[in-house]
């Protein structure tokens, strides 16, 4: 499927997808990008330095369609609002960003420091986990995108035929 930096069959795929309604194109591509991003996020979870596990638990994939219509999938780490636990059913909200006990002690629950770990600070060296995950998983991510499209496109073609 892949030859150097060029994916064989991509032109045919784009030509085929140009015939789909815009809504279908956007949703199919968003799902395909998410399928690839999930593998990279898992690679980041395997590489992230662990002390409390909060940073690892905060790694997640967000897929959406930008205002200009471009489907996107983004891998995020850290949170200022909530902390997540990875569970069988996916991630779930566990607690607020911080809590204060009866004695007035503040406890921070969210991994707000994700960028500090990835890129370092003036006092701490970088300990990248997202970029190495991308570098290590990009081929598998491309394959996952292709597999998703291979499965989903025939389903969408059948739906369109049924509407005709």
- Enumerate the strands of the largest sheet in spatial order, edge to edge or round the barrel: 1-2
The number of helices is 5
Total beta-strand segments = 8
Q: Which structural class fits the helix and strand makeup?
A: alpha+beta
Shape: elongated
Indicate the proportion of strand residues.
15-25%
Radius of gyration, whole Å: 20 Å
**Element-level helix/strand string:** EEHHHEEEEEEHH
Instruction: Give the rounded overall mean pLDDT.
Output: 79
Largest sheet: 2 strands, antiparallel
Account of the 3D structure:
This protein has 164 residues and is α+β, with helices and mostly antiparallel strands. It contains five helices and eight strands; from the N terminus they run ββαααββββββαα. It has helices at residues 10-17, 22-47, 54-58, 114-119, 130-163, and strands spanning 2-3, 6-7, 60-65, 71-76, 82-87, 90-96, 98-100, 106-108. The strands form four sheets. The chain has a two-stranded antiparallel sheet. Strands 3-4 form a two-stranded antiparallel ribbon. Strands 5-6 form a two-stranded antiparallel ribbon. Strand 1 (2-3) and strand 2 (6-7) form a beta hairpin. Helix 2 (22-47) packs antiparallel against helix 5. It is elongated.
Quick structural overview:
Helices cover 48% and strands 21% of the residues.
List its salient traits.
single chain, 164 residues, 48% helix
Lay out the secondary structure:
Layout: E1 2-3, E2 6-7, H1 10-17, H2 22-47, H3 54-58, E3 60-65, E4 71-76, E5 82-87, E6 90-96, E7 98-100, E8 106-108, H4 114-119, H5 130-163
Antiparallel strand pairs: 1-2, 3-4, 5-6, 7-8
């Amino acid at each position: 499927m892949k030859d150097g930096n060029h994916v064989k069959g991509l032109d045919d795929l784009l030509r085929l997808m140009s015939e789909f309604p815009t809504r279908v194109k956007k949703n199919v591509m968003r799902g395909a990008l998410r399928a690839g991003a999930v593998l990279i996020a898992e690679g980041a979870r395997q590489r992230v330095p662990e002390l409390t596990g909060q940073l690892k638990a905060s790694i997640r994939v967000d897929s959406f369609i930008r205002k200009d219509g471009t489907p996107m999938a983004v891998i995020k780490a850290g949170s200022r609002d909530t902390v997540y636990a990875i569970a069988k059913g996916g991630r779930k909200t566990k607690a607020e960003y911080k809590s204060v006990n009866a004695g007035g002690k503040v406890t921070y629950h969210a991994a707000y420091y994700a960028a500090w770990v990835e890129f370092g600070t003036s006092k701490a060296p970088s300990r990248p986990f997202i970029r190495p995950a991308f570098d290590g998983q990009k081929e598998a991510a491309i394959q996952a995108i292709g597999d998703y499209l291979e499965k989903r496109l025939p389903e969408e073609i059948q739906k369109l035929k049924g509407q005709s």
